[in-house]
């Protein structure tokens, strides 16, 4: 089922707490996309994941690890029963299969604009899905790089049947283009949280998925 994923990125734990409270108030929403950055893989550094995961919530959590060395954070997510985790293709990880197997957590391989489906073809079997970045990671509010949506078609042509997530400048102006592709999750940051009425923005975006 297609779904809007309200997203939060901040360098303060307080902002994550406020986002959780806000997203829990959205009618029909049961999930939060949590962006985590280490200041190395991308220039921006977020609040500490260990503290963020201690925040109580009824929402399912999808954690996007934009970090250079994700191994310890993957273990942390598993320990906290995080439902879904995305890690980047360029991240330093010794072995995908030994870390990602034998857990209830689902894992996604995130690819930046410069990474092609053929680059990750040999790794696809180890993942439940692919997160396609339609911006260069690190900051909210960037321009939408629509050419990256073509990667969805390429992945299907490679025989990949896993879940597709699109992340990056998805908003009320760009979502209809994304809807033309086989996408389950539409990650929305600024297009919700920075709007005058975030709940109304979420509602309008959700309606677009029903067209």
UniProtKB/TrEMBL annotation:
Q: Which InterPro entries match?
A: Aldolase_TIM, Ribul_P_3_epim-like, RibuloseP-bd_barrel
Q: Which organism is it from?
A: Candidatus Dojkabacteria bacterium
At the top level, the lineage of the source is Bacteria
Keyword Isomerase listed: yes
**GO terms assigned for molecular function:** metal ion binding; racemase and epimerase activity, acting on carbohydrates and derivatives
UniProt cross-references to SUPFAM superfamilies, sorted A to Z: Ribulose-phoshate binding barrel
Q: Name one Pfam family in it.
A: Ribul_P_3_epim
Tell me a GO biological process for this protein. Answer: carbohydrate metabolic process
Entry protein name: Ribulose-phosphate 3-epimerase
**Which terms are listed as keywords in the entry?**
Isomerase, Metal-binding
Spell out the PROSITE patterns in the cross-references.
Answer: RIBUL_P_3_EPIMER_2
Q: Does the keyword Metal-binding apply?
A: yes
């Amino acid at each position: 089922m297609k779904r809007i994923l309200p997203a939060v990125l901040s360098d303060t734990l307080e902002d994550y707490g406020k986002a959780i409270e806000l997203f829990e108030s959205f009618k029909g929403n049961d999930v939060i996309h949590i962006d985590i950055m280490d200041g190395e893989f991308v220039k921006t550094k977020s609040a500490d994941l260990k503290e963020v995961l201690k925040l109580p919530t009824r929402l399912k959590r999808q954690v996007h690890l934009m970090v250079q060395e994700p191994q310890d954070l993957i273990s942390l997510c598993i320990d906290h029963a995080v439902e879904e985790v995305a890690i980047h293709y360029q991240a330093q990880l010794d072995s995908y299969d030994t870390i990602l197997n034998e857990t209830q957590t689902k894992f996604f391989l995130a690819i930046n604009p410069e990474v092609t489906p053929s680059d990750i073809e040999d790794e696809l079997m180890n993942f439940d899905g692919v997160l396609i970045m339609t911006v260069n990671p690190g900051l909210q509010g960037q321009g939408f790089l629509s050419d990256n949506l073509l990667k969805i078609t390429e992945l299907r042509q490679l025989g990949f049947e896993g879940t597709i997530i699109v992340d990056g400048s998805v908003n009320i102006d760009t979502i209809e283009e994304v809807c033309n592709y086989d996408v389950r999750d539409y990650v929305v940051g600024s297009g919700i949280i920075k709007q005058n009425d975030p709940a109304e923005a979420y509602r309008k975006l959700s309606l677009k998925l029903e067209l």
